[in-house]
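Hi Q.,

Before the meeting this afternoon, I wanted you to have the 5-O-phosphono-beta-D-ribofuranosylamine prediction in hand. No need to reply - just skim if you have a minute. The sequence and ligand are here:
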Amino acid sequence: MKKIKTAILISGRGSNMENLIKACKDDNFPAEIALVISNKKDAKGLEIAALNGIATKFIDHKNFSSRAEFDAQMSLEIEKHNCQIVCLAGFMRLLSSEFVEKWYNRAINIHPSYLPHFKGADAVGDAIKAGANFSGCTVHLLRSEMDEGPILVQAKVAIEPSDTKESLAAKILKKEHEIYPQALKKLCEMVVL
Ligand code: GRF
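Predicted structure with the ligand bound:
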């Protein structure tokens, strides 16, 4: 099976990244992770990727005078590694419209809520504060508006009265690790090379 080369963008811990790397090790999984890019030098995910023998690249967004220039540098690296798909996994920067256009229907993001509920940077905290009885996680195609775009896979997580932000975050993360590989597989099936 010819696997589709995929790049992952991270900013930190990289547990979703690690989980995607693991899923891709299956010969029958349609993607292979060929590159991990981080905008943070000390992102733990960079170490994990390197330990898995995957090419890594730190690109400091502070070295670029505009978002579009930083994004263009990322695109250059992604193309250099012949990647056709981009997965955002805890990448903590908004992407320019140029980047979104370039990777239109080839880039996906994971968000820790059952979208369209609780968009934004503190989705887990917001679900707790709202007293919601469920939240979840969503993988969607990347679009210019934050946490918007056609949904590929999503899952609900029940919120118990005893849940804290931390306990809910842990439950959601577990679900994220289930759905992100499913969504990447789905995208691979959609992408016409
Ligand atoms: C996840 O909760 C993801 O939904 C959000 O950022 C977190 C990243 O966690 N976008 P990790 O770096 O994959 O462990």
